[in-house]
Amino acid sequence: MAGQSAGDRLVNWYGGVVEKNLLTRPDFVHSWLMLGFQAMRAKVHLAPYSDLLPSGNHGYQLFMDSVVGALADFGNAVVTSIFTPNEIFHALGVRPVTAEAVASFASGAQAEGGFISAAEGRGIPETYCSYHRILMGMATSGVLGRPRMLASCSVACDANNLTFKTLGRFWGIPHVYLDVPYDVSRDSALYVADELREMAKVAEEASSCKLDESRLREICACSERTMHALAASLPTRRGRYLANTMTIDMMEMLDLHLSLGLPKCEELAHEMQQDFLAAPPYEGVNLVWAHVSPYFLESLGRLVNTSKTAQIAASDMMFEYLPEGDAWFDATNPYEFMAERLVRNCFNGPATRRADCIERLARETDADAVVLFCHWGCKQTAGAAQLIRRQLEGAGWPVLVLDGDACDRANCMEGQMTTRFSAFLEMVDKRGRKAGHE
User: Fold this and answer.
1) Are 44 and 61 in contact (CB under 8 A)?
2) Which tens digits make up the pLDDT trace of 167-182?
3) Backbone φ and ψ of 132, nearest 5°
């Protein structure tokens, strides 16, 4: 562990305790993890980071409150895939939490290796998405108890069906799967709306609570306002110092899915806009980051975390759906409103839709370049990477396709990734401002 800071050594030891006790003392491992998670939750409230904007700290706090709260009360939680609408669960008072959020917590504790080994020991292939391997390892080892239900959708990957179906059988709980048609049409939205109504019925039964439709409309109205506020923040990011990190960007992205429909999430979207408008100019490289990020790689992070060299201006995971003036439904029709968001999601349908979304984000934020991160096991991103790269480069944006793993340290070649990323930023900086799309 030469070269590690005292803090790194402490977290490394903390994760090692998990791995040593995982097979024999899963209840202890659960308590041990929750002790660390609760301590970190308290820390971000009591001692916010001085180098972040207020919205960055509030995004961090909201994420910790949401995920730690769900893990601490897991019997009252529903495990969802990242793009599954959560407004129904908020209306029922059930806590949603995603595979990505749970796995990120395990990775942040440097405990992912033990859970991945546990999943692979049960026959999960090493080529499978690392987020889902961690979740399945936590579940099958007994560290995670039984939630109320599982809810997933076909956007954006096959793992959403396979993982959740397997865990539904393992836990013996309901699993609802939303099959989203590729065709972006009103009829597709109506089809998904009916699926959401069925999901609401299952959620009512699983939570032993009757859904208040007026409450659902209020929550969807809050979602609608939040998405408009978030979209309005895009131009305020142009040439401004956002004081963000890969970790904060990931947390805010998860906030805007997990907590969408709650007033705190709406407040966060408005606060972002205010912070960015008041932020000083930024002279470094502005990036659009496509897909998730390996936030734990320190040498990579030094180049973009509250850095003068480069920063992430926007990501397609946060802005996968931008409300348009030609929307078919509003929040007065809550099921259709949620369904339209799924159908119009840029991860739904052909890869050109995602490329169009990334190009729009680059244009609206006046970005200098794009990084497309191919997370291990994500076949959709890997398969679409070269098509997306060609489209964006044809429109004038330099693109770096970076292969790695967003939550498994053992599966990342940090030195090679950092060298390629650093050389790319230097090339973009020397190249000067964008050509061909100003």
Assistant:
1) yes
2) 999 999 999 999 999 9
3) -75, -30
